[in-house]
Design a protein that fits this description.
By secondary structure, this protein is of the alpha/beta class. Helices cover 45% and strands 17% of the residues. It has a single domain (4-201), classed as Endonuclease Chain A (Endonuclease, Chain A, 2-Layer Sandwich). Strands 3-2-1-4-5-6 form a six-stranded mixed beta sheet, with helices on both faces. Helix 3 runs antiparallel to helix 4 (64-80) and helix 6 packs antiparallel against helix 8. It is globular.
Length: 204
C-alpha cells in the first residue's frame, strides 16, 4: 500500500499531490482516466516507461536516479492495481497516445500489444478518443477519477508543473459527467482495438 512516507518527494521530482492520489487509487473500486500525448502510467510497459523517463533525463528535467525511481514507483503502482478483487478501470486515450512513437518501433509495438491485452481483461474498458471529435473532447489535460466503495469520488488533474487533488465529491461530479460525455463520443472498445491493431501492423 502506498503512503506519503513511501516516497521521498525531494529526490523523485513527482508532482505535489500525486503520491496522495496514488495512495487513494490503491483503495478505489473504480478508476476512470483520460490522457493525451502518452499512454497513461498504469497501462505502460516498463520499456515504454523507461523511454519516457530517459527522455526527461535527456532534456535535463530530472536526473538518472530520479528516472530510475519513477520507473520503480510506477511498477509498484501497477502492482497495487492487480489486487483481488481488482478495480474496474475505464481508460479513454486521446488518439495521440497511440500514434506518438515512444522508444522506437519495438517498444511501441510491445506497448500497443499491451493495450490490446488490457482491453481483453474482464475488469477493464479501453476507448480511443479520435482526433475527429475536435473541440468536443471534454478535457485538455490528463484527468483521473476514483470511485470508492461508499460511492464517494475523488479526482486528480495535472499540468506540466502542478497536480491538483480534489477530495469533494460534489466538485468531482461535473468532471465525472464530462467523462461520461467523452466516452459517448469516443470509439467503442471494439473500434479502438481495431485501430490499435492497425497501427501495430504498421510497425516492424
Amino acid at each position: 500500500m502506498f503512503t506519503r512516507k513511501a516516497l521521498d518527494l525531494k529526490s523523485t521530482a513527482i508532482l505535489e499531490g500525486f503520491p496522495e492520489y496514488v495512495a487513494q487509487e490503491a483503495k478505489a473500486e473504480e478508476l476512470r482516466l483520460f490522457t493525451l500525448g502518452i499512454v497513461p502510467g498504469v497501462l505502460q510497459t516498463m520499456d515504454y516507461a523507461r523511454a519516457i523517463a530517459a527522455g526527461a533525463v535527456q532534456r535535463r528535467n530530472i536526473t538518472q536516479d530520479q528516472a530510475d525511481e519513477r520507473v520503480t514507483y510506477l511498477a509498484r503502482r501497477q502492482a497495487s492495481l492487480r489486487r483481488e478483487p481488482p478495480p474496474v478501470i475505464h481508460a479513454v486515450l486521446d488518439e495521440s497516445c497511440i500514434r506518438r512513437p515512444i522508444g522506437g518501433p519495438a517498444v511501441m509495438a510491445a506497448q500497443l500489444d499491451h493495450l490490446v491485452a488490457f482491453a481483453s481483461l474482464p475488469n477493464t474498458l479501453l476507448q480511443v478518443a479520435p482526433f475527429g471529435i475536435g473541440e468536443a473532447r471534454a478535457f485538455d489535460l490528463p484527468v483521473y477519477i476514483l470511485t470508492f466503495a461508499d460511492r464517494s469520488l475523488m479526482s486528480y488533474a495535472e499540468s506540466a508543473q502542478q497536480g491538483n487533488l480534489e477530495r469533494d465529491s460534489g466538485a468531482v461530479r461535473p468532471i465525472l459527467t464530462a467523462y461520461y460525455q467523452l466516452q459517448a463520443i469516443a470509439l467503442s472498445q471494439a473500434e479502438s482495438v481495431v485501430l490499435i491493431r492497425q497501427l501495430r501492423e504498421e510497425l516492424p
